[in-house]
Structures are given as structure tokens and as C-alpha cells.
Amino acid sequence: MAYIGRQPSYGAFEKQDLTPDSSTTTFSLTYVVGSSSSILVSVAGVVQEPEVGYTISGGGANIVFTEAPTTGDNVYVQFLGFARDVAQLNSGSITSQTELAERAASGDFFLVYDSSASSLKKIQTQYITSPSVNRTYTGDGSTQGFTVTSGVTAAQCLVTINGLVQTVTTDYTVSGTTLTFGTAPEASDAIQIRELPA
Fold first, then answer.
1. Does residue 54 belong to any structural domain of this protein?
2. Structurally, how many domains does the chain consist of?
3. Is residue 21 situated within a structural domain?
4. pLDDT digit string (tens) for 2-33?
5. What is the chain's alpha carbon radius of gyration, rounded to the nearest angstrom?
6. Residues 57-114: tens digit of each pLDDT
7. Looking at the domain assignment, is residue 68 inside a domain?
8. What is the largest CA-CA distance in the chain?
9. Beta-carbon neighbour count of residue 181 at 10 Å?
10. What is the extent of the structural domain holding 59?
11. pLDDT in tens, 139-169
């Protein structure tokens, strides 16, 4: 078949036939549409004007005719495009990106892309396993405080001095970003702090 202009290379427009009964004005659409102009509607061979002969409702899920089509009329909808569902995150309230420079709270959420469902989903912090953090320090005989990640607790720290495991709250405590030993490690002591996942 010859074409005037560029020959179409791909694509097809879905069609939905409707069954009128002379009283029904609202019909469910097979596909959700973005606007009344996203469909071509024919009633008994007469193309209907968007927003005059019909409107859409239910977020684009239904077509509503101004007058009920007559029983026996050939009524169909040609879909010219579908609505695209795009998620918005706190629309209007995100003004900048910031880094969370501490452990996420148990009530926080992460956004992940679920490739099996092809959708964006949220997941609670408790279901995400974070890698452990290893810190190595050397004692100097006077320093008692050593840096750890903000939000980590003493119970989440496995601490050794020269290979000997230290006892939580007896040998050290944690407050904010500081792990504090009850007694300063000796000069040249090898200190290892492993922050375990929450």
C-alpha cells in the first residue's frame, strides 16, 4: 500500500467496542487515558468531539457520554495514547538533596526499584542489611575517645585491643559519634572497632 508522506514504521491503536442500551452514559475504558483528547470516539459512524460529546471521569478510567448512545448503534473508542503513571515524592516539598550522615532510624524508608514488578517501592530500614564498618586506631596512652558512626550503639560495636575482645559498657560506652574507653589504651595498642549492622 502506498503512503503520502512518511510510511508508518511501527505502532497500533487499540480499539474498544461499547454496547449501548439507550440509557447508559458511563462506560469503563479498557485502558486509563490522560485526557478526553487521548481517544477517538465514534457513535453510529459520527466522530464525537471531546468535552462536548463526551468527557472522561474516574481519573481517565471511564468515558461519560453527554447523551446515552442508542441501542444498536455501532459505538467504539480508539485509544490514541495511554496515561503514564509517574510517582511523585512529596510533590512541592523537596527543594534540595541532602545526605543522611548517620544510620537511618528504624522507622525510615528507602526507595528501591523492584525490577520484577517494574515499579518503585519503599522498604523499611529494618529489612535492609547494611555492611559492617571496620575502624582501626592506635592507642597513645591518653586518648579515651574514638570516632564511630552516628547512631551506632555500644551493643553494635565489636571492640578489640591487641586482639582481646572488650566488654560492652564495662570497658567502653558509645555516645553520639564517640566510643569512649573506661581507661585509655596504652601507647601502640592496636584498637579495632567493628560496627555491626543494626
1. yes
2. 2
3. yes
4. 556 555 555 567 889 999 999 999 999 988 88
5. 33
6. 988 889 999 999 999 999 999 988 665 555 555 544 445 555 666 666 667 777 777 7
7. yes
8. 96
9. 19
10. 15-79
11. 999 999 999 998 889 999 999 999 999 999 9
For the entire predicted model, the pTM comes to: 0.41
Q: Which candidate, 17, 26, 24, places its Cα nearest to that of 77?
A: 17
> Which of the listed residues 55, 79, 103 is the one where a domain comes to its end?
79
pLDDT for 166-197, tens place per residue? 999 999 999 999 999 999 999 999 999 999 87
Inside any domain, residue 165: yes
CA atoms within 13 A on the CB side of 49: 2
Instruction: Name the grid cell of 7.
Output: 510510511
Q: How far apart are CA 63 and CA 36, in angstroms?
A: 8
- % of the chain surpassing 70 pLDDT: 76
As a whole number of angstroms, the distance between CA 15 and CA 76 comes to: 7
Three-state SS annotation for the chain: CCCCCCCCCCCCCCEEEECCCCCCCEEECCCCCCCHHHEEEEECCEECCECCCEEEECCCCEEEECCCCCCCCCEEEEECCCCCCCCCCCCCCCCCCCCCCCCCCCCCEEEEEECCCCEEEEEEHHHCCCCCEEEEEECCCCCCEEECCCCCCHHHEEEEECCEECCECCCEEEECCEEEECCCCCCCCEEEEEECCC
CA atoms within 13 A on the CB side of 52: 4
